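TODO from last week: model ABC transporter permease.
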Amino acid sequence: MFKLAMRTLRLRKGGFLATFVAVFFGALIVSACGGLMETGIRSETPVQRLAAAPIVVGGQQTLALPEEDPATLDPEDKHKVKNATLPERVRVDAALADRLRAVPGVTNVVGEVSFPAQAGAASALGHAWDSAALTPYTLKGEAPKPGEVVVDAGLGLAVGDTLPVAAHGSVGQYRISGIAEAPQVMRDSALFFSASDAEKLSGHPGQFDAIGVFGGDVDAVTAAVGDAGIVTTGTDRGALEFPEVTKSGEDLIVLAAVSGGLSAMVMVFVVAGTLTLSTQQRQRELALLRAIGTTPRQLRRMVLGEALVVGVLAVAVAVVLGPLLGKWLFGELAAHHVVPDVLEFEQGWLPATVAAGASLLAVVAASFVAGRRASKVRPTEALAEAAVERRWVTPIRVITAILCFAGGTALAIVTVAVMTGPVAASTAGPAVMLWAFGLAAISPGVTKVTAMLLRWPVQAVTGVTGRVALLNTRVGAVRTAGAVTPIMLAVGIATANIYLQTTQEAVSNQAYTEDLRADAVVAGPGGLDPSVLGRVAAVPGVASASEYVTSSVFVEKPYDSNNDQDGWPALGVSELTGNAVEVPTTLGRHVGDTLSLKLGDGTPVDVRVTAVVSQRAGFERLVLPASLLAPHTTLGLAPQLLVRAAPGVDPATLASRLREATAGMPVMVGDRAALIAAHAKGNEIGAWVNYLLVGMIIAYTVISVVNTLVMATAKRRREFGLQRLGGFTRGQVLRMAGVEGGLIATIAVLLGTLVAAGSIVPFCLVVSGSPLPSGPPAIYLVVLAIAVVLSLVAILVPAWAATRGRAVDATSIGE
């Protein structure tokens, strides 16, 4: 049977080319997503500033959160915990450096501090000069004394110049005492200060960002550090230099898992549809094989052999090109700041193996489905069966549809009854796939029923060609469903995902705008000196001013079952002082209660609840004093002041007065519109990721639809020839094909819209109270236009080619 399968492949190149393309693109996307996932898991970051230190000690960036209330458990039992990534840089006590110097074998210990600085118009990172040995930098000139600075060679400055440097909310004039040259290309330019100046400008006196250790045994260093930090070597040192890669790696894992899983599921349907259609078009050939004595097992083996040969070839090419696509996708993610540009793309053999296994499994499953019906036909009925389209209803299809519809309904109920705010997307998103897969399982029957419902309007508009097209659609429901299903998937997935994103953005912007009482903002890229608040508050026309700090905190005691790996969003304002905290009603606490928190850098603090307020669902947060929250952020200062104008003072006048009051300070003044625009821009990263995912699915669907329609239409040359011999002109045949394409697009759009509604409506009811999504209608119209154009082009081009030449010649060509 293998020899027969190979001969069949040579004679039916078109059908198997379609299968090759479907498997190839499915395996390609899965392989690329696997590379992104491996990159997120590895989170390998090349060391730059700390490259010369063989051992680097830093703060523990993870926090263990109990999964159950420790008070209800036996103290002797082992508690289950989940690890959360702390959002702010965790530093270590400078005294730890002295302890490490006492470790036998250690030859040198160097502490590293790093803080944002502005050198004229250029952005840079400031450090103490003694930490230059961690890279190491080469010095031309002299080491800096207090009031001096060594500048990076890339800044193009000269020794002896005076350089204004803005750091930690203030501007100082520093004489350039030397030029430092790095041994490799660095992401950030460097400014080196004396140890005393660097400690003052860092904003975290008595602490180091990291400590480089030269010499000594790793185990001995680890023992000396104890619980005061973590010890890293090799490529792990990069995570201490760039702590943001840890959280980004986790996000990349989730993104790759969702994208790859969704692509794999779509691939199963696409490959199954393509292979089933290819086998269906060979019913006469398969029937003849049954009639001359081929056993059902042999027939199944032949179909499986053909599919595996094509699948193996497609997978082999895909796994070679998968890393290229993965690297391109990673580059786009880095360019749009979804992941840090210092993270290194890594793809080994495992993603290729998973992609190959998933793709070949889809091929085997599809070939089993495709060959099952033909292999079960009795030899005496084989020739008759070849002329009749196979039945579409099977117990497996019905059971699959029922399970999917039940799952989609359950998720819709959970979304409306349990979820709140934007987190409702976590159940609304998967519901799209369940509704889509349920309809796909019974798509031939649904296609036939929908075509019957469209009978009267189609006949009224298109006449006799429309009636013939309707008959072709109803009789060839299985063939038509092969084209309807992928378009339905694309319309449903694209519409749902895009409108879920636009609705979430609109609700987020609305919530921010409703809570915003400020008319102007004073912002400092390196943080604002606390004295700025008093200066701004004294400006005529200012009704109130407050520092504005954002971070995340974790409720440690009493136990909070809502604690997740992201913690509670926290807002720091100047209106609160001491250890006061304002909490949302959903936290379940009362005025006077004491909460034990872990701040963003892991620092424990006890706060007293002074207010319990009702906040918008999904946007709850804890409000703390800015003076308490800001020192425990990476920056160490409030990055913004929000200013409210006094009655009768217009925003433009207020902004002008603020600029005058802050002249000469390293700050920028913006109006209310700038605040809203900055908040909206923060949502663009999530939107871009969503659009990338939708784009990949649509691109794959385009390939599938073109495969299916081109293959199906090209095989109808004999049918078109008979119609022309029966009195149809070539133009009428093409118009009939065009009506069929329009019917396919209409049915797919209707079903896709139904699929999207099953996800969008519950989500919108939760987050906005309306069943309709937020977002421009043009999005839906573009999706519809793509579906219509795709269907018409994919069916009319091969129909035009199939009707070329004489009709009598077309009828003589075998099927």
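Done. DSSP finds 26 helices and 24 strands in the chain.
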